[in-house]
Design goal:
Keywords: Endonuclease, Hydrolase, Nuclease, RNA-binding, tRNA processing
CATH architecture: 2-Layer Sandwich
Helix content: 25-40%
GO molecular function, one term: tRNA binding
Number of domains: 1
Largest sheet: 4 strands, mixed
GO biological process, one term: tRNA 5'-leader removal
Strand order of the largest sheet: 1-2-4-3
Number of helices: 3
Shape: globular
GO cellular component, one term: ribonuclease P complex
Distance between the termini: 22 Å
CATH class: Alpha Beta
Strand content: 15-25%
Order of helices and strands: HEEEHEH
Number of strands: 4
Oligomer: single chain
Pfam family, one: Ribonuclease_P
Protein backbone atom coordinates (compact mmCIF):
# COMPACT_ATOMS: atom_id res chain seq x y z
CA UNK A 1 0.00 0.00 0.00
CA UNK A 2 1.25 3.45 -0.90
CA UNK A 3 2.08 5.92 1.89
CA UNK A 4 -0.38 8.82 1.67
CA UNK A 5 1.19 11.02 4.33
CA UNK A 6 2.57 14.51 3.78
CA UNK A 7 5.57 14.55 6.13
CA UNK A 8 7.59 17.64 6.98
CA UNK A 9 10.43 16.31 4.82
CA UNK A 10 8.28 16.99 1.74
CA UNK A 11 7.63 20.62 2.74
CA UNK A 12 9.68 23.66 1.86
CA UNK A 13 10.68 25.44 5.05
CA UNK A 14 13.76 27.57 4.49
CA UNK A 15 13.59 31.09 3.11
CA UNK A 16 16.45 30.54 0.66
CA UNK A 17 14.53 27.59 -0.87
CA UNK A 18 11.48 29.78 -1.46
CA UNK A 19 13.59 32.60 -2.92
CA UNK A 20 15.37 30.26 -5.34
CA UNK A 21 12.04 28.96 -6.64
CA UNK A 22 10.64 32.50 -7.00
CA UNK A 23 13.74 33.57 -8.90
CA UNK A 24 14.15 30.60 -11.23
CA UNK A 25 10.76 28.87 -11.25
CA UNK A 26 7.94 28.95 -13.75
CA UNK A 27 5.00 31.11 -12.63
CA UNK A 28 1.37 30.15 -13.22
CA UNK A 29 -1.50 32.12 -11.70
CA UNK A 30 -5.24 32.52 -11.54
CA UNK A 31 -7.58 34.68 -9.48
CA UNK A 32 -7.11 32.64 -6.28
CA UNK A 33 -3.64 31.09 -6.31
CA UNK A 34 -0.19 31.61 -7.79
CA UNK A 35 2.12 28.64 -8.33
CA UNK A 36 5.87 28.64 -8.90
CA UNK A 37 7.47 25.37 -9.99
CA UNK A 38 10.99 24.29 -10.87
CA UNK A 39 12.79 20.95 -11.12
CA UNK A 40 14.31 19.70 -7.88
CA UNK A 41 17.99 19.05 -8.33
CA UNK A 42 18.95 15.50 -7.42
CA UNK A 43 16.38 15.02 -4.67
CA UNK A 44 12.68 14.52 -4.11
CA UNK A 45 10.53 17.57 -4.75
CA UNK A 46 9.05 19.65 -1.96
CA UNK A 47 5.96 21.84 -1.63
CA UNK A 48 5.60 25.18 0.17
CA UNK A 49 2.41 27.13 0.88
CA UNK A 50 2.45 30.89 1.49
CA UNK A 51 -0.52 32.80 2.91
CA UNK A 52 0.48 36.31 3.97
CA UNK A 53 -1.34 38.51 6.47
CA UNK A 54 -2.97 40.32 3.55
CA UNK A 55 -5.04 37.18 2.92
CA UNK A 56 -6.85 37.34 6.24
CA UNK A 57 -6.62 36.60 9.92
CA UNK A 58 -4.59 33.66 11.23
CA UNK A 59 -7.60 31.36 11.51
CA UNK A 60 -8.51 31.93 7.86
CA UNK A 61 -4.92 31.56 6.62
CA UNK A 62 -4.44 28.34 8.57
CA UNK A 63 -7.72 26.90 7.25
CA UNK A 64 -6.63 27.54 3.68
CA UNK A 65 -3.19 26.01 4.32
CA UNK A 66 -4.79 22.90 5.85
CA UNK A 67 -7.12 22.49 2.86
CA UNK A 68 -4.24 22.89 0.40
CA UNK A 69 -2.01 20.45 2.32
CA UNK A 70 -4.81 17.89 2.42
CA UNK A 71 -5.42 18.32 -1.31
CA UNK A 72 -1.70 17.80 -1.98
CA UNK A 73 -1.59 14.78 0.32
CA UNK A 74 -4.64 13.14 -1.25
CA UNK A 75 -3.48 13.88 -4.82
CA UNK A 76 0.26 13.42 -4.44
CA UNK A 77 0.26 10.97 -7.34
CA UNK A 78 -0.55 13.96 -9.60
CA UNK A 79 2.41 16.00 -8.36
CA UNK A 80 5.78 15.31 -9.96
CA UNK A 81 8.21 13.79 -7.45
CA UNK A 82 11.10 15.75 -8.99
CA UNK A 83 9.53 19.25 -8.83
CA UNK A 84 9.64 21.93 -6.14
CA UNK A 85 6.39 23.90 -5.90
CA UNK A 86 5.44 27.07 -4.05
CA UNK A 87 1.74 27.93 -3.80
CA UNK A 88 0.83 31.50 -2.91
CA UNK A 89 -2.70 32.14 -1.66
CA UNK A 90 -4.52 35.29 -2.76
CA UNK A 91 -7.20 37.07 -0.74
CA UNK A 92 -10.18 36.02 -2.95
CA UNK A 93 -9.46 32.37 -2.02
CA UNK A 94 -11.21 33.00 1.33
CA UNK A 95 -14.54 33.00 -0.49
CA UNK A 96 -14.06 29.45 -1.85
CA UNK A 97 -15.31 26.29 -0.21
CA UNK A 98 -12.92 23.40 0.51
CA UNK A 99 -13.94 21.58 -2.65
CA UNK A 100 -13.64 24.68 -4.85
CA UNK A 101 -10.20 25.50 -3.43
CA UNK A 102 -9.02 21.94 -4.05
CA UNK A 103 -10.34 22.10 -7.62
CA UNK A 104 -8.56 25.41 -8.22
CA UNK A 105 -5.27 23.94 -7.00
CA UNK A 106 -5.55 20.89 -9.24
CA UNK A 107 -6.55 23.04 -12.22
CA UNK A 108 -3.54 25.30 -11.63
CA UNK A 109 -1.31 22.22 -11.35
CA UNK A 110 -2.47 20.96 -14.75
CA UNK A 111 -2.09 24.44 -16.23
CA UNK A 112 1.48 24.74 -14.92
CA UNK A 113 2.61 21.39 -16.29
CA UNK A 114 4.18 20.48 -12.92
CA UNK A 115 2.32 17.17 -12.79
Amino acid sequence: MKNLGFPRGKRLKKQHEFKRIYRTGRKTADEYLTMYSRPAEGRAGKVGIVASKRVGKAVERNRIRRVLRETIRANQHRFSEKTDIVIIVKQPALELTHVELAEMLLLLLRKSGAN
